[in-house]
Design goal:
The complex is a heterodimer of chains A (186) and B (313). With 186 residues, chain A is mostly helical. In chain A, 66% of the residues lie in helices and 0% in strands. The mean pLDDT of chain A is 85. Chain B has 313 residues and is mainly alpha-helical. Chain B is 69% helix and 1% strand. Classes of the chains: A mainly alpha (186), B mainly alpha (313). At the A-B interface, helix 2 and helix 3 of A face helix 4, helix 5 and helix 11 of B.
């Protein structure tokens, strides 16, 4: 009963906060409305007794939104993002796409024949979920993660304005000259 | 929710937890006042009374308003720190009792300390003041440096106890406290506590060079709640160190719950004492320290702990 009430309450918060992203006129409010929406979803996952997954959703999303607020204020093109702004671009197309998607998904929920539960939930749900998702594909996952990290590093290296030759001279032997020296004195 | 050794008490006992947190905050504020008075040559009694004087002064102060402030986000940010600290101590077992016996209590604590990222930035943003916003950016830049070492410091006790449940981690230290054989993780953890409390060397976000930074426009009860929140985060971090590294409620003569309070108060006093002893960690400089020194150090610590854990099992 209490869990049911909480579930619906959080669902309303998640949807309303998600809608608020496109209604409020401030970059900070939009960002943290999205964060609130994600926190509500994370609490939903907690209600599903996926404690680890739920808390990690909250942790990652709050962290990401904190960083995203900084980037948004820095890089938003049409204004300095410190002024009142609007998150909606291409209003008509966006409305058609979002209402269409919502209608499709809602129709799916209502029309699809939901299967009855077979068997009972596993004892440790998080572990069961992890094994179901990853179990036979662990090798792929183990290969993909270093490739992804290498991609990120390579991307940053390619995008960086200054290379190691700019830092340490043509023969890479000079002392590094950085506009902003770091804390370990390299 | 889990099969740990601690007993979950009723929600009403949360009040006792809050009272204990309040007492720790008061202790930290009084001792900080004393240390400050000693450093500046003022009278000791005046120093000890300073938190009360300051509280009374702020409660009577007229609230400052700024042009086009985002009051909602501003108040949420400043007031949220106290709430975050209260949620942190919910998973700290007081001897044999805990309010929330979560199977992933360590992740809970971690999620709460990440909330501070958002709250500090919002406090800086809300006042619509350039100094506040610069302070908020400074905190996030510093957070990039301290957060990962802090996360991996929390991993060490979890590996050793083979559990993310705080009560189980405390119970796993009946032989030898984790602080003895994971000192690097402990020191990095304390650094993280000081950092998410915007404390001592990690307070450039409140620097006087930017007119108080995040707190530049805070006044009256808002400022009192913000400062109280910082002390509460410090106290909650100190309390969480007890089950993580200091053996929880174990100790001779005294009952377990009292040992937890005594150990938490001791850690807290160390943090208060360290406030004026260490140089400021400039965010731009500290990021490199965090990633090139602290993170590898704490990863090596985790590796050692993992090897010991595998060996022992």
């Amino acid at each position: 009963m209490l869990v049911g009430i909480l579930f619906w309450l959080l669902a309303v918060v998640a949807v309303l906060a998600g809608a608020a992203v496109f209604i409020v006129d401030s970059m900070a409010r939009a960002t943290y409305a999205l964060a609130l929406s994600f926190v509500a979803v994370g609490l939903h996952v907690l209600l599903l007794q996926q404690n680890y997954v739920g808390l990690v959703v909250i942790l990652m999303m709050v962290m990401e939104m904190a960083i995203m607020a900084v980037y948004m204020v820095m890089f938003m093109g049409m204004n300095p993002a410190l002024m009142p702004m609007d998150m909606v671009h291409g209003r008509a197309a966006a409305l058609v796409a979002s209402i269409g998607t919502f209608g499709l998904l809602a129709a799916g929920i209502l029309l699809v024949e939901w299967p009855a539960r077979r068997g009972s939930p596993a004892g440790d749900l998080t572990r069961a979920l992890g094994e179901e998702l990853m179990g036979p594909k662990m090798l792929v996952m183990a290969v993909v993660s270093p490739v992804m990290v290498a991609t990120i590093v390579a991307g940053v290296v390619l995008a960086a304005h200054r290379t190691r030759y700019d830092r340490m001279g043509d023969d890479l032997t000079g002392p590094p000259s950085d506009p902003q020296p770091g804390g370990v004195g390299r | 929710m889990s099969d740990s050794s601690v007993v979950t008490v009723g929600a009403g006992w949360a009040l006792v937890g809050l009272v204990l947190l309040g007492l720790l905050v008061l202790l930290a504020a009084v001792v900080d006042g004393l240390v400050g008075a000693r450093a500046s040559g003022a009278s000791a009694l005046g120093g000890a009374m300073r938190p009360l004087d300051e509280g009374a002064r702020l409660l009577r102060q007229r609230r400052r308003t700024t042009v086009a402030a985002d009051s909602l986000l501003w108040r949420l940010g400043g007031g949220g720190l106290l709430v975050t600290a209260a949620l942190m101590i919910a998973v700290v077992p007081l001897g044999d009792w805990t309010i929330l016996d979560l199977d992933v209590g360590i992740v809970w604590f971690n999620a709460m300390d990440v909330l501070v990222w958002a709250l500090l930035w919002l406090t800086g943003w809300g006042a619509n003041s350039a100094h506040g916003l610069i302070g908020g950016y400074r905190f996030l830049a510093l957070a990039l440096g301290y957060e990962l070492p802090l996360m991996f410091a929390l991993v060490a006790p979890a590996i050793a106890a083979e559990s993310l449940n705080v009560g189980t981690v405390a119970a796993a230290q009946d032989g030898v406290w984790f602080v003895v054989w994971m000192p690097i993780a402990f020191v990095v953890y304390l650094m993280g506590v000081a950092a998410f409390s915007v404390w001592g060397p990690f307070a450039p976000a409140l620097g006087s060079d930017i007119a108080g930074g995040v707190a530049a426009e805070l006044s009256s009860v808002d400022r009192l709640v913000f400062e109280g929140g910082r002390y509460a985060l410090l106290a909650a971090g100190a309390a969480f160190a007890v089950p993580m590294f200091l053996g929880g409620g174990s100790g001779p003569l005294l009952p377990g719950w009292l040992w937890v309070v005594v150990k938490a108060a001791t850690v807290l006093l160390v943090l208060v004492w360290g406030r004026r002893r260490l140089p400021a960690a400039r965010p731009d400089v500290f990021v490199e320290v965090g990633w090139l020194v602290l993170l590898p150090a704490v990863l090596v610590q985790d590796l050692l702990v993992a090897v010991v854990a595998v060996w022992g099992s």
